[in-house]
Design a protein that fits this description.
With 142 residues, the chain is α+β, with helices and mostly antiparallel strands. It is 30% helix and 25% strand. Strands 1-2-3-4-5-6 form a 6-stranded mixed β-sheet, covered by helices on one side. A hairpin with a 4-residue loop joins strand 4 and strand 5.
Amino acid sequence: MPIIRRFEQNKQSLEEFYKELIPKSDAQIGDAGTLMLKVLKSINKMFKKTVLYGLTSHASLLIFNNDFEDSDYYIVINAFKSGYYDEYRIEYVIPENDRPWEGATINGSSTALEEFEKMVIISMYNSRGWKDNSELEKLYHG
């Protein structure tokens, strides 16, 4: 599976975690689980060979390019479903040589999963966390 949970949280899969964030039908809260499950499915469909490592922080999914302790994340994903709209949000870290200050990021959002898939590919490419990855190169230039 291309996206897996990092070792710090490996007692539960990402899918199991986000299933718990789907509210019961009588709940009066927004749904942070359903769209995140769609995001995971989409990433697994796009990437057959490239392994991405996820760490959850509340409902956010931090994406890493490795499973090593003390490594930095490159991307943060959030998705939320309310009674009125679906929203996919993404943020990526600007590479050190390009950023105007420490910790600078670029973020965006979409209400369409297909557009968001493109944003994931662009974020992975532009963050330079997956340099020289042929699968990503093909998706980015394809």
